[in-house]
Design brief:
The chain is mainly alpha-helical. The protein contains five helices and no strands.
Length: 94
Amino acid sequence: MEGSSHISETEDIATRLRHTREALEVNQREFARRVNLKPNRYGQYETGARPLTIDAAHRICDEYSVTLIGYRGDRSRLPRHLAIVIARIEAADP
């Protein structure tokens, strides 16, 4: 049971990463470059193939002015324009 919770959380974070990147209108390569991550590693975070590390999360938060709480589903601490765009993307995501 505990393992399935971890998988679900990893997938949720991966989806939120993708939504954030799309809201910022940045491709994966540029998003990764700006936080000093290899594009293939970032791609693994975004697809949920690999859990997001604390170090990578902090880099993303610092560069893009998002919060770790935002990756746990609470958009209230994200910049307003980003929260609105992410909400639109989530609504359109199948």
